[in-house]
Amino acid sequence: MIQFPKQFLWGGAIAANQVEGAFDQDGKGLSTSDMLPNGILSPHQTREERTPGIKDLAIDFYHRYPDDIALFDEMGFNCLRLSIAWSRIFPNGDELEPNEAGLAYYDRIFDELAKRNMQPFVTLSHYEMPYALVENYGGWGNRKLIEFFERYARTVFERYKDKVKLWLTFNEINMSLHAPFTGVGLLEQASKQEIYQAIHHQLVANAKAVRLCQSLVPNGKIGNMLLGALNYPYTCNPDDVIAAMHENNQWLFFGDVQTRGRYPGYMLRYFRENGIEIAMEPNDLAIIADASVDFISFSYYASGCASADPKQKEVGNIVDSVPNPYLEKSQWGWLIDPKGLRILLNFLHDRYQKPLFIVENGLGARDEINDQGEIVDDYRIQYLNDHLVQAHEAILDGVDLMGFTSWGPIDLVANSTAEMSKRYGFIYVDRHDDGNGTLERKRKKSFHWYQEVIKTQGGSLK
């Protein structure tokens, strides 16, 4: 029988910009996410052009969090991954003093979680930053953002050091290569030079946050977070194997810097061959070298293939890859590959020799309410069951796995497309792509399934 370790953390993951709403309440400033009313696939707007979007209200977690947390508790969560909206704490990003109303809001959430013995697991920057930092400084292309992020990190570490022991720096930090406005506050037409320069500033800021957490939060742990975009060679042709190596290096670069504390040789070669010159201050590399993360966390939804033949590529959701003929696809065209999770867990553990945490995994699908008023989402149950079975196989392989937080334990606004119809949750939210709905919550069949998985420490998995 499958049994996960007793200390294993079970829960779900949400992001402030996809659940909270209340985009302009209690002193919150506009974020980059607020400027993307139709998701990250749409061009961003200026402050003057901004139109209302579905994320302005999202699922109103800002006001409904006690009831939602109660539902998470009913499922048996001992961990909830969530993010702090940076622009709730520093509305414009460059203030010297934080917004007390924003700090107090997260105090209330963490207190609610503590009442239910649920560990908060907090991401500092989850696909959003104060939009004023883009307007006034040019986003992460400006070194001054290192100082602003350090002030923000210090503020929340000092405020919540007794309430939050698990932290992450940047959500899916490698996504800046594919969606630079979302990741580093640069326009989508930014050059590789500009993007990698902004990424360097973010990596220095990451290192400073890691050291701050390790010094300020007693018994705290801080990790990085990667989009686990594992690519297989399309064939056994050595050229395809090398193509897969290059594709994987594009995202492993971030993990290498955040874990090993240096720029890897393959990336220095890439910079040389593409005419990229990173401007650094004398102490930057020493700061990075002194700040290895405590653990590696990652999202995993799908694998991909890489080919030396560019014609093989297929346009995907944000990330393009070569289709794998051995795998089925989800309704949104994502390849379903549970065994890829085991492969990735072993790969990352072998590479970094640090504890791992699966902080996002789930299936986005269109859910229907049947004539009995039920949502029978067996497809989601099958997807998560198969991935958790493979996660357990990785533990048997010797992988040190801290926990699993499914993406979207409650339906939320899709980040890429700002849809409600792409549902991930165990809990249905009555809100639709046109913004209509009562916001009523309803348990799906998967709610009771996940409840049993947690109760049995994985023993109910098949």
UniProtKB/TrEMBL annotation:
Broad class of enzyme this protein falls into: hydrolase
EC number: 3.2.1.86
Pfam families associated with the record: Glyco_hydro_1
Record flagged with keyword Mitochondrion: no
Active site per database record: 360 (nucleophile)
GO cellular component: cytosol
Keyword Hydrolase in annotation: yes
UniProt keyword annotations, A-Z: Glycosidase, Hydrolase
UniProt GO BP: carbohydrate catabolic process
Annotated GO MF terms: 6-phospho-beta-glucosidase activity
Domain of life: Bacteria
PANTHER family reported in the protein's UniProt record: 6-PHOSPHO-BETA-GLUCOSIDASE ASCB-RELATED, GLYCOSYL HYDROLASE
Family: Belongs to the glycosyl hydrolase 1 family.
Protein name: 6-phospho-beta-glucosidase
Gene expressing this chain: ascB
